[in-house]
Design goal:
Elements: H1 2-20, H2 27-47, H3 56-67, H4 83-95, H5 99-121, H6 125-128, H7 132-135
Length: about 140
C-alpha cells in the first residue's frame, strides 16, 4: 500500500510542478497529465494485493465462486452481490479472463471517469486529482 501512496503523491507533485510552470494553460498538457494519472491509477488498482482494502478478497472470492458455478438467469439468481456485478463477472469468466482483470477493469473504469470529469470541469487539475485515491 505504501508504494501506492508514494507513486500517487509523486504524480501530484509532478502536477503541481507543471501548474507552477503554467503548463496547464495548454490543453495537450492537461490531457497528457490526466492520461498518465489514468494509466497509473488503473495499474495500481489492478495490481494491488488481495490483502489491500477490506473488500478486495471478497470480490476475488465472489469471482472464483462464479467461475466454478453455472450461469444463472435473473429470475434464478439469489446471490449476495448485485446481479449487474454478477453479469460482469460471468462475462469475464466466459471470455476466460482471470479475477485480476476484474480489478484492472473497475480501477480503469472509475479512474477514467474521474479523469474525464476533472478534464471537463476543473480549473486546477493537480488539486482535483487528490480525490482519486478515495474513489479508486
Amino acid at each position: 500500500m505504501t508504494i501506492y501512496f508514494v507513486f500517487y503523491f509523486a504524480l501530484i507533485a509532478f502536477g503541481f510542478f507543471l501548474s507552477l510552470a503554467d503548463f496547464f494553460k495548454y490543453d495537450a498538457v492537461k490531457k497528457l497529465y490526466l492520461t498518465v494519472v489514468f494509466i497509473s491509477m488503473t495499474l495500481l488498482a489492478g495490481s494491488r494485493g488481495l490483502t489491500v482494502g477490506y473488500d478486495t478478497w471478497v470480490y476475488n472470492e465472489f469471482f472464483s465462486t462464479i467461475a466454478a458455478s453455472r450461469f444463472y438467469a435473473p429470475w434464478e439468481y439469489n446471490g449476495y452481490m448485485e446481479y449487474g456485478f454478477y453479469m460482469v463477472c460471468a462475462l469475464f469468466r466466459m471470455i476466460g479472463l482471470p479475477a485480476r482483470f476484474l480489478f484492472y477493469f473497475w480501477g480503469g473504469l472509475i479512474a477514467g471517469s474521474v479523469c474525464i470529469f476533472i478534464y471537463k470541469n476543473s480549473k486546477n487539475v493537480p488539486f482535483s486529482t487528490f480525490s482519486i485515491p478515495s474513489i479508486v
